[in-house]
Design a protein that fits this description.
The complex is a heterodimer. Chain A is α+β, with helices and mostly antiparallel strands. Chain A has five helices and five strands. In chain A, the strands form two sheets. A three-stranded antiparallel β-sheet of chain A has the order 2-3-5. Chain A has a two-stranded antiparallel sheet with strand order 1-4. Chain B is mostly helical.
C-alpha cells in the first residue's frame, strides 16, 4: 500500500517559498541603483579621441547609414586638421563598424547608456560632445586595451556588498547600495 | 454586557431623548466597524503585495509613503477616478445592485466579531450560525454580477461560483459544528471564552477543513476559479469599473478579513493573549492568518474545476463528517479535565485520516493519473 498524494508536495512547496522569503530581492531600483554593465558593451554614444584622429574618414566610409560627417583642412607637416566630426546618434544603429574600421584606434564605443534627449537636434553630437572626458568613458568593444581599467560587470548589485545569495534579512526599504550606485 | 450597551446606559443616565439613546450607540458602532474594516483592508492590500513580492524575490511597492504603505490609497484614488462603464447587454439594475450585495453582507459579518470581552456589536447566541447565513448572501451578489454583466466569461465564473460555494459550505459548516460541540455554544463570545487552549490544537483536522473551505469561500488562491485571470480574464467582475469595481475589490479583501477574523475567533483563541491588549492580539492573529493565506497564494497553482469538486466532496466532506463524529464521541465520553488527551487523540486521528484518505485521490491503485 503506497501512500501518495497526501499533501507532502504541498508542504515541500510551502517550505520552498518560505525560504525564498528570506532571500535578498533581485529588483534593481533603476534611478537609485545602477548595475555595472558589460565592459564590452556597445553603449549609447561613440567616444572620439581627438589626438589620435588623422581625419582619414574611414569611419565615415564604413558607416552603413552614412551617419558620420568628417570635414578636414590641410594643416602643417602634411597632416589633416579635423574641423568637423559629427554623428547623428538618432540614426546610429550601434553596429560598431566605424570603431572596427578605424586604423588609428581613434574611435571607441562608449560605456554610457543614459543618453535620451528631448529634441532630435540634440541627438547630433559634434566634436566636443564626442571627445573623451571623465563622463564619457570608452568601452572595451574592439578595444581590448581598455578592458582592465573598466569595472567588472555585475548582474547582482548587492552581490559583493552582502555576500551573494546568503539567507540574510536585508532591510526592506530602498536603502541598499552597492558598487556602481 | 457589551461596551455599546454600557454606552447606551450612560446616555440614558444623561437624560438623552429616547430615540437618541437608541440610535447613537448603533451609529457609533457601525462607524467603528466600517473604519476598522477599511483600515485593515488597506493594510491587507499593502501587506499582500509586499509579502508576495518578497516571496518572489521582488521588492513590491515601496515608493508611496514609508515602505509603500500609501500605495493602496493611491490605487483606490485611481480606481475611483475611472469611468463607470455599463455594457449594452447588461441587465442594468442587477449590474448596479450586485457590488452592494457582495459588500454589505461582509460588513454584516463584523457585527458578531468579538474584538475583546465586551467589544462586540451584538452578542448573538447563534453568532456563528448568523455568520454562515450572512456570508452565503455574497454568493448571490457574485452570481448577480456574473449574470447581469452579459459576458460569457462572467457566465462561466457565475456557474463556477455556485458550484464552488455550495460544495464548500458543507464541510465548513460541519467543521464549525465540531467547534460548537466543544465550546458548548454558538455565541462567538462563549466560543472564545471556552478556549483555555486554542481549538486549533484540539481540532487540527477541523481547522484544516475549515481553513481550506474558507479559502474556497473567499475565492482565494488556490481556489480562485471565479476570477482565474489566465482562463476567464477577471471572472464575475470583468465588466465592472470605477466605484463598482472598488466595491468588489473591497469585498474581496473584506471577506478575507472576515474569514481571518472567524478563524482567529474559532481556532486561535480570539482576543486572548498575554501582555498586549486584547484588540491588538486579535489584529495580530488576523494578520498571521492572512499571511498564511498570502503564502499559499504565492505557492500553490490554481486547481482545475473537477479537482476542486473532487477535493470538496471526496476529501473535505467525509473528513468533516468523521471529525464531527469523533469530536462528538470525545465530548460525550471523555471527562471534562482531559483536554490534552483529546489533543493527542485528535492529532493522531488527523494524521491517520489524511494518510488513509489520500488513497481516494488515486485511480486504479495509483496507475492512472487523475
Amino acid at each position: 500500500m503506497k501512500f501518495e498524494r497526501y499533501g507532502i508536495g504541498i508542504a515541500k512547496g510551502m517550505a520552498l517559498t518560505f525560504r525564498h522569503l528570506f532571500r535578498s530581492p533581485i529588483t534593481v531600483q533603476y534611478p537609485d541603483e545602477k548595475l555595472v554593465i558589460s565592459r564590452r558593451t556597445r553603449g549609447n554614444e561613440l567616444v572620439w579621441f581627438p589626438l589620435s584622429c588623422t581625419g582619414c574618414a574611414t569611419c565615415a566610409k564604413a558607416c552603413p547609414q552614412g551617419n558620420i560627417i568628417v570635414q578636414t583642412h590641410r594643416g602643417g607637416e602634411s597632416k589633416f586638421i579635423v574641423d568637423k566630426f559629427e554623428l547623428d546618434t538618432g540614426r546610429c544603429m550601434f553596429c560598431g563598424l566605424c570603431v572596427e574600421s578605424c586604423p588609428y584606434n581613434a574611435l571607441a564605443m562608449g560605456l554610457s547608456y543614459e543618453c535620451a534627449k528631448y529634441r532630435r537636434g540634440d541627438l547630433v553630437m559634434n566634436k566636443e560632445q564626442l571627445s573623451v572626458c571623465p563622463d564619457r568613458q570608452p568601452s572595451a568593444y574592439s578595444r581590448p586595451q581598455f578592458e582592465d581599467s573598466l569595472p567588472e560587470q555585475s548582474l547582482l548589485l548587492y552581490d559583493r556588498a552582502v555576500g551573494g545569495q546568503k539567507l540574510t534579512f536585508l532591510p526592506w526599504s530602498k536603502r541598499k547600495r552597492g558598487p556602481g550606485a | 454586557m457589551t461596551l455599546l450597551d454600557q454606552f447606551q446606559l450612560m446616555l440614558k443616565g444623561l437624560d438623552w431623548p429616547e430615540w437618541a439613546v437608541y440610535l447613537t450607540p448603533a451609529i457609533v458602532g457601525i462607524l467603528l466597524i466600517i473604519v476598522f474594516v477599511l483600515t485593515i483592508v488597506i493594510v491587507f492590500i499593502w501587506w499582500e503585495r509586499r509579502l508576495i513580492s518578497r516571496i518572489q524575490i521582488r521588492l513590491g511597492p515601496n515608493r508611496c509613503g514609508p515602505e509603500g504603505i500609501f500605495q493602496p490609497i493611491a490605487t483606490a484614488v485611481k480606481i475611483l477616478l475611472k469611468e463607470d462603464i455599463v455594457p449594452d447587454k447588461a441587465d442594468k439594475l442587477i449590474h448596479f445592485i450586485a457590488p452592494i450585495t457582495v459588500f454589505v453582507p461582509i460588513l454584516l459579518i463584523f457585527a458578531v466579531m468579538p474584538f475583546d470581552q465586551g467589544a462586540i456589536l451584538v452578542d448573538l447566541n447563534v453568532g456563528i450560525i448568523y455568520v454562515i447565513a450572512i456570508s452565503s448572501i455574497s454568493v448571490i451578489g457574485i452570481f448577480m454580477a456574473a449574470w447581469g454583466s452579459g459576458n460569457k466569461y462572467s457566465y462561466i465564473a457565475g456557474m463556477r461560483s455556485i458550484a464552488q460555494m455550495v460544495s464548500y459550505e458543507i464541510p465548513v459548516v460541519l467543521a464549525i459544528v465540531g467547534i460548537a460541540l466543544v465550546a458548548g455554544s454558538f455565541s462567538m463570545l462563549r466560543i472564545v471564552e471556552a478556549q483555555s487552549i486554542p481549538f486549533i490544537l484540539l481540532q487540527p483536522l477541523g481547522f484544516l477543513i475549515f481553513f481550506l473551505g474558507s479559502l474556497a469561500e473567499m475565492n482565494r488562491s488556490p481556489f480562485d476559479l471565479l476570477e482565474a485571470d489566465s482562463e476567464i480574464v477577471a471572472g464575475y467582475h470583468i465588466e465592472y469599473s470605477g466605484m463598482k469595481f472598488a466595491m468588489f475589490y473591497l469585498g474581496e479583501y473584506g471577506v478575507a478579513l472576515a474569514y481571518a477574523g472567524i478563524i482567529t475567533t474559532l481556532f486561535l483563541g480570539g482576543w486572548q493573549g498575554i501582555l498586549l491588549p486584547p484588540v491588538l492580539w486579535f489584529v495580530i492573529k488576523i494578520m498571521l492568518v492572512f499571511s498564511v493565506i498570502v503564502w499559499m497564494r504565492a505557492t500553490l497553482p490554481r486547481m482545475r474545476v473537477d479537482q476542486l469538486m473532487s477535493f470538496a466532496w471526496k476529501f473535505l466532506l467525509p473528513m468533516a463528517v468523521i471529525n464531527l463524529l469523533l469530536v462528538a464521541a470525545e465530548v460525550l465520553v471523555l471527562p471534562a479535565g482531559m483536554l490534552w488527551v483529546m489533543v493527542l487523540i485528535n492529532f493522531a486521528m488527523a494524521a491517520v485520516l489524511i494518510l488513509l484518505w489520500s488513497r481516494l485521490f488515486t485511480l486504479g491503485g495509483g496507475r492512472v493519473e487523475v
